[in-house]
User: What shape does this take?
Amino acid sequence: MGHNMNNINKSLALIFTFALVVWLPSSQALMFKHDHHATAVKKEKLTTNNKCKNAEVECAKTVTSAFAPNGDLWRLWAHQQKLWVQISQDNGVTFSAKKMLAIPAEKISARNENRPKIAFDQTGGVYLSWATPREKKYTADVRFSYSKDYGKTFIKPITVNNDNLLAGHSFNEMLVAENGDVSIVWLDGRISHQLRKQGKQSNGSALFLAQANFKDVDRNSLPVFTNQQLANGTCVCCRIAMDFNQQGELAILWRHIYGDNIREFALLTLAKNGEKVTPVYQVSHDHWKINGCPHQGGAISIDEQNRYHMVWFNQGDKGKGIFYASSDDQGKTLSQPISVGLLSGQASHPHLSQNKENIDIVWTQFNGIEHQLWHQRSIDNGQSFSKAQLLATAQNGSDRPFIIKKDKASYVSWQRPKQGHWVKVL
Amino acid sequence: MKKRVRLFFALALFVICGGSSQAQNYSIDHQPFSQMAFDKLKQQQLGNRWLMVLWSLDCPACFKELKLIQTLQLEQHGKALNVIFINADDTDEVNLERKQVLVSYEMTNFTNFYFADGQGDISRYQIDPQWYGELPRSYFVDEQGKFHGKSGLLDENLIRSWLIEK
Assistant: This one.
């Protein structure tokens, strides 16, 4: 017994010694880092060549911003399977300390055209939606969570797509009406998944809509999202855009596949009950033929006269670059598209918003050294636009810019990775 | 004594292997894209006909193209196709996933580059200021070093005629 104990003690000593030898060099490295941490942390965040691995907003690839009805500006980003927010009460000049939302950790798609979404209702409700990648390549689920206490607590996340398939469900967009009606659209791979299982060919995804209302419901009896197929044969990697018209109908703009891989934008308006008010209208005719991923979605904004304002990017043989056009009949006919931005300056990723008399368009350009954020405004209902103005630049990459509204004012939100999130009134 | 030696070697093996959490840490020769590396590549390839393929993890059509090239390479009985791959995902988040693709599509015998974190647009611009980021993107480069760009999934016959039946 004593002999055995002796052997065990020797073995433990050996393990301890070995662990010390292995651990010592790395611990010294840690100590070295620690010594520098206090003074270097600010610099590290903003230095281009350092790997950005902390939860600060500067390190996020994408940031989503939205104004709450009380005037608070929320910004949302993902870091290590968690969602983080900051709130500004002075329109983005200063923000509160970052806060990790009380939602269980899971993978969150947050780069390029994919990013989490946030919306609000009139009574303190906060709504979140994101895509969570699944175990197989190009599979994901659209997820949703809701807080009725302005973000203090959230319901356990719900999977929005109801097919229970290991298939693609991603590129989610969300709108919440004043009464709390939630509408989420996304690109859905369930049809192509089934076709592949049958040994059949498929091309593209399907456009799906889910709707539900979570206001005034008990946590134990949450509503179930409807799932409605709106179109099939969509591009698989471009974000969707949507807005309400003056009847509260939902207008949805997405990149569709026409014919032999012609990627053009399509528009559909839905009544509140989900019935199609219009057929699917093709709204761009630039003839971009590509069996691949443009990675460039469009934007739509509808004014008080129900004029649909749209902007998109194409590289077709009939039209290249960013185009703006509007429609007074829900997409049946369109104004002559106006070219926006400098094509040779890599003008791309446009977004737009109308607000009272103004139609604002923002987009990015790249000159080989820095990214640039540009802006144009129309004050004559989109007939003409002011000269393009350079708003800001970025040195370490660029997220897509977005225009967000607060009452009569429009703001641009632009994430500049490793440099900072930029918000400015237009 | 023997037991302690065995224990020491077992511990050493565990550390060398890095434990199960790092078991998928492939050692793969791929380098960040830079203007200097690109210039060197172009210089090295002068006189050759080659294909430069840009791909992304976020592009399903790219994987069809990788599979196509993998299949064509297998047909060559050891003679290497003159293909250079560049991964266009400029984020460190995908480092492991990128390596997994290189292994699973048998791309490790080819020259591989990737866009460094946050350097995607500048790398894209260095390759072609007229390319807007759509993928897959390929360049057919002739013996004089002239680049012919094409967006979208490549046709098998086009690759064959450029690299195999030239």
